[in-house]
Design brief:
Chain lengths: 532, 298
Amino acid sequence: MTQPEAPPEERRSKRARESHATSIRPGFFIKLILMALINALGVYIILAAWSQQSWIILAVTVFFVVLADIVYFTKRMLPLKYLLPGLVFLLIYQVFTVGYTGYVAFTNYGAGHNSDKADAIAANVMQNQRRVEGSPALPLVVVEQTFPGTDLGFAVLEDDMVKVGTEDQPLEEAPDAVVEGTTIVEVPGWNVLSWSDAVARSQEVTQLRVPVSDDPNAGSIGTQDARTGYAYRSVVTYDPETDTMTNSDTGMVYRANDRGQFQADDGSTLTVGWRVFVGAENFTTAFSDQRYSGPFLKVLAWNVVFAIASVLTTFFLGLFLAIVMNSERMRGRKIYRTLMLLPYAFPAFLTALLFQGMLNRDFGFVNQVLLGGMPIAWLNDPWLAKLAIIMVNLWMGFPYMFLIATGTLQAIPGDVYEAAKIDGASGWQQFRRITLPLLLIAVTPLLISSFAFNFNNFNLVYMLTGGGPRFTDTSAPIGATDLLITMVYSVSGLDGSASRNYGLASALSIVIFLIVATVSAISFRLSQKMED
Amino acid sequence: MSTPHTSEPVTADTHRQRSVGRMFADVGWRHVVGIVAVIFAAFPILYILSAALNPGGTLTGSNAMFSTVSLENFARLSDTYFWTWLGNTLIIGVITSLGTVLMGASAAYAFSRYRFAGRQFGLTFLMVLQMFPQLLAFVAIFLLLLTLGEVVPFLGLNSKIGLICVYLGGALGVNTFLMYGTFNTVPKELDEAAKIDGASHAHIYWRIILPLVMPILTVVGLLSFISTFNDFMLAKIILQSEENWTVAVGMYGWVSDQLAANWGQFAAGAIIAALPILALFLFLQRWIVSGLTQGSVK
């Protein structure tokens, strides 16, 4: 990250050359080592991407490694030397993911539509394999790959020739294998499992199918007892010319439709589909599908109320305390201030979990001790749960507002008040006409970012109520205290509470972004006007 | 309440009462408010401390505060993955905050000191990107790591390095502006003087500018550490096996199943996990306040 050469005009002076020589040497070696590491990492990723045929990852890696070498080994592009490290991470993990969210939002990516069409065809073929009637029993052993992975595979003896393969590698001949009678004893490059070891992993072994060749329609080898293999063939075959899949058992013909599925004339579909563009469908689902639209509007309304209420409650409590504490004559202010900072310094996720316990209906401290054993369902009643969330947020948020209000109050010059007193302004008038306007101008940007933060306050809601209590009028996993962000998390299915729907989740993410961006833009405008 | 002790005779009694009243009107009520606020702020933390020290370990048992005191709950943590999680969290947090500070500072330096094509665009772009928090792109992040992991396992799912890279992706967007403002307050004459003395741009950056902006570097590092420490969602999605979890992911698991029974264990873990952050806050209070008023939120 350092750069050895000084610009040419400086090198001309003798003094410059001396300081150059003494101060840069170690930096140059550090740079050389770092660049060597980066290049080595780059080569490793390129090779790995090559073997996995991931051309995009390969191209991106080549681009960045070459760019880094050019930037750090030439004298030009000085600003880029400082920007590049952050820029690489920003482009891959932020810009790309934002863009990819936009792409996924317009597809049906999710459960049943996880990959491209070729993968979907192969998966449908694999899932519908049946043992071929009357096929010969082949001597078989279970093997384990020794390099590069440790995938399980089969070695079978067919026509005096040993063939070996895994789920991903179709059977290939292994001419160096050792056979005793009809038992395969050794296969170079593979670890032959003993029969008892193989039986110990019977679940994996009986489900394993090793394809006979690259053609998915050619069938595969499977076993039930880890000793004999039988030919399996799929009852479902793909015909590229008509773009259909046919089930030879039932005679049903499944045609590829524009929803990314193979569909028969009676409307039934094969289980595995592929992802396709669905246009704005995910967005219309959010607003019109009855499973989502009702809850979505309720969640949206509560989300807005929560974000506003959390900013207002914390701000006014913080401001009130700041005004109270802002008296020169009050002793021990530092101690009060430090103790009041505690909730802010206590990690937020622990706060939410802590209050989940304290507000527990049957055993929690609040009900048992403070309220003398009243069984109040703080977290299970829709309205009380909302109140609880705002109160807990008040607890963890007011110190921040207290800090910034104190800072701003102390920045207001005292002579403004002197002048007001001389003009005969009362205490309330001073507050209303001087303190509040000056304060608001200073803290408005902070209130806006606090709004934006609380709008997406995932931790608080997810860890305090989990979004519950659940709405009873919908099958979607959404509840009365869900914010949009926790709703998106449930909808995505990444927590296992629903089947995965990446498309809808991404579309909702974009809706959240639009709301937050609009509110922020409008309020920045307003606050700028206020300043003028 | 601070009552003034005077040695004046009884004749001054009426005078004294009036001054007590005035004292209360002036300062005393402020103490009352202050004490109420401190109780409100500190009580839950006192409660969790007592629960941590209560050997029963249940939610009901914790209601009798400080009735019995033992370190049993802390000892029980060794039977769990807690210390592994804490180690993971600290490693991830420290590396992320160091990376964030270094990358954010060098980007801010470039924007502050050089004039180059795309500079204005870059600044505006960062400002817009700030509004799209990484949290919103979690589906795309998951899918990206899923794909990356097939090629380079240590950058994929269930890898701490993978998670750190994701956090570092957010480094520029959030912090560059904060630092950019501070870098601009360092007079350019300093760089120019050093340049005339023959210092290279790297020398100016590392030896002259960075030491001058140490306070803001500390604040950014600390805030980045805290937000990493508190992150649940991305860590939960990316780190899948139990020995790779962070404290946030692991302790959520304790409370979400068997909250009532695991309470003592949770409380003990919470006290230990909160200690590093509490300590940092207390030691760096002044710097944090100045950093906060420049626009970062918990």
